[in-house]
Design a protein that fits this description.
Elements lengths: L1 H12 L10 E4 H20 L9 E4 L5 E4 L2 H7 L5 H16 L4 H20 L4 H22 L1 E2 L3 H12 L8 H15 L10 E7 L7 E3 L2 E3 L11 E10 L19 H23 L5 E4 L5 H9 L3 E3 L4 H11 L3 E2 L11 E11 L2 E7 L7 E7 L2 H24 L1 E4 L3 H15 L5 H12 L1 H9 L4 H13 L5 E3 L6 E3 L6 E3 H19 L3 E4 L26
Parallel strand pairs: 5-14, 8-9, 8-11, 9-10
Antiparallel strand pairs: 1-19, 2-3, 4-15, 6-14, 7-13, 8-12, 12-13, 15-18, 16-17
Helix pairs in contact: 2-4, 2-5, 3-4, 4-5, 4-17, 5-14, 5-17, 6-13, 6-14, 6-17, 7-8, 7-12, 8-12, 9-10, 13-14, 13-16
Length: about 550
């Protein structure tokens, strides 16, 4: 009886495993602490790149390729971050990049600061659900405040200042006047009513020359050369046919044998093929087309006939380029030669083959009212052109965002200080512990101006005090001049940003902070599919050397 009792006790304390061997599980406060630590590490990585005085990062990948940039999303993507919570912060940067194209560092730094401040509340035994609820209330109020302070202004001067602000602190800064004008022109050209598709602005980069040599081409530049040296290098008043089928003899759909018994028959067969290709070319050129852009292959014989007709032809043009050329020239993409007519052709002032460096490019230029354009970026080295391209992407995104919503705010930390002040007033109207979370949210907003000040090597305490004093006197655009350390009117100084950058950054940062806070259990599987080794070390069925007659 006593023995049975002992056995029951032993069974009661035996552990129950619900996860495969090698899995790791972190629970409760420790899980939250680890996740917040990872998020803060990501935020700290990009924090030093923020603002006009922000520094750059050099990232070297496994192949030895070097990227030098201060673009938040580029840094985070190239770093190949592994930690699951850190990956959630990287998603914030990607969302910001996809929605606007700029403000990625702001969004990540805000997310990191929200979590850092939440950690202090967790240490005071405030429940994560209470903090999450407070953060949601604060985010909703923040959107309301931002929409109230945004100002309607989308004239060319404002748009140019927005583009310049986007480029300040990046490699393109020294030529930002030239590049900002190009960005504004490009966005306004592709605007159709209220709709702006940034994909219709093709950004091509070419190493060689200086950044000031960059230009806006009213049309499309392709990394393609003409098919024959006997074709004209330049075609003026181009009539462009876009063909989405091969200019070749199609193979039969079913297996077929053609029996040829005499050389005459062979010659007749070849002549017939040639005649068919000539008819195809005649059909294209009869419409008046003198430039033929084919998405698929073009037979050598067809190339010969096109050259004899004096046409400029290119084959294997990418689908995206075909769509952009159609937008730029007004052409229709045709996949049946029998239906090709003069009405399907597009127009361009000039089509030209140019040599840039070692490569030949086709320039389709001087299109009337093009709805797709090319920004050709130049720079002394590959690293410079890559960074200028990233700066131009930011500028184009900002100008497009400003035109879409029509609302603009000043930069230099002004909207964040205004936001923090309004949120503190809102917190006092709340009862319960959510009030603490809203105040914490308000404190987190101040990380942006504080980071701008610190990155400029200035004293954050004095400067932040001066900024808050200016805002308390109803100067809502009081921002920090990072070059002098004094408070300035950011709007008058021309430091402008689209409101959408701020609303999106606050929204994404708050969402990810709430998501990370609500995680109280992290389960990481071992990833191994093989059967786990038993405690003895040998796989089952391999018990010792039994049966060997030793």
């Amino acid at each position: 009886m006593e023995e049975n009792k002992k056995m029951t006790n032993n069974q009661a304390v035996q552990p129950i495993f619900i996860l495969p061997e090698g899995s790791q599980r972190t629970l409760g406060r420790e899980a939250q602490k680890n996740n917040i630590m990872a998020a803060k590490a990501v935020s700290e990585t990009v924090r030093t790149t923020l603002g006009p005085k922000g520094m750059d990062k050099m990232i070297v990948d496994s192949l030895g390729d070097v990227t030098v940039t201060n673009d938040g999303v580029t840094i985070l993507e190239d770093m190949n971050i592994e930690h699951p919570a850190a990956k959630m912060i990287v998603e914030v940067a990607k969302t910001q990049e996809d929605e606007i194209g700029d403000g990625t560092t702001t969004a990540v730094v805000l997310a990191g600061e929200l979590l850092k401040n939440a950690e202090e509340l967790l240490d005071k035994d405030v429940h994560p659900a209470v903090i999450a609820r407070g953060y949601r209330l604060a985010e909703s109020k923040a959107q309301e405040v931002l929409n109230q302070i945004g100002e309607k202004s989308t004239n060319d001067d404002t748009l140019k200042k927005i583009a310049q602000t986007a480029m300040t602190g990046k490699g393109a800064e020294y030529s930002k006047d030239t590049l900002a004008s190009l960005a504004v022109q490009a966005v306004k050209m592709v605007q159709e009513n209220e709709h702006i598709d940034k994909d219709n602005i093709k950004i091509e980069k070419r190493t060689g020359g200086s950044v000031d040599d960059s230009e806006l081409i009213k049309g499309i530049v392709m990394d393609k050369e003409r098919l024959s040296s006997t074709m004209p290098r330049v075609v003026t008043n181009a009539k462009i046919a876009l063909i989405d089928r091969e200019i070749e003899i199609k193979k039969t759909e079913i297996d077929a044998n053609i029996q040829i018994k005499t050389p005459d028959q062979m010659q007749g067969f070849l002549d017939q093929e040639e005649k068919m290709l000539q008819d195809m070319v005649d059909k294209i050129t009869a419409t008046g087309a003198n430039v033929v852009l084919c998405q698929k292959g073009v037979d050598d014989v067809a190339i010969h006939f096109l050259a004899k007709k004096g046409a400029y032809a290119v084959r294997r043009v990418s689908e995206s380029d075909m769509k952009k050329i159609a937008k730029a020239t007004g052409a229709k993409i045709v996949n049946n030669l029998k239906d090709l007519s003069e009405n399907d052709l597009g127009n361009a002032g000039k089509v030209e083959e140019r040599k840039v460096g070692d490569d030949e490019f086709t320039y389709i230029m001087d299109c009337k009212n093009p709805k797709a354009v090319t920004l050709l970026i130049r720079g002394g080295t590959e690293h410079v052109t890559n960074e200028v391209e990233r700066a131009m992407t930011d500028a184009v995104g900002d100008v497009a965002a400003a035109l879409k919503t029509g609302l603009v705010v000043a930069g230099a930390g002004a909207p964040e200080i205004e936001l923090a002040s309004s949120l503190r007033k809102y917190a006092h109207s709340l009862s319960g512990r959510e009030q603490l979370a809203v105040e914490t949210f308000a404190d987190a907003m101040e990380i942006i101006p504080r980071t701008l000040v610190e990155n400029a090597g200035l004293d954050p305490i004095d400067t932040m005090t001066d900024l808050k004093a200016a805002h308390s006197k109803k100067n809502k655009w009081a921002g920090i001049d990072v070059f002098t350390g004094k408070v300035m009117d950011a709007w008058k100084r021309g430091v402008l940003e689209p409101l959408k950058i701020k609303t999106q950054a606050v929204s994404s940062a708050a969402e990810v902070a709430v998501m990370v806070l609500r995680i109280d259990d992290v389960i990481q599987s071992s990833g191994s599919k093989e059967p786990a080794m038993p405690p003895g070390g040998m796989p089952p069925g391999m018990g010792g050397m039994g049966g060997m007659g030793m």
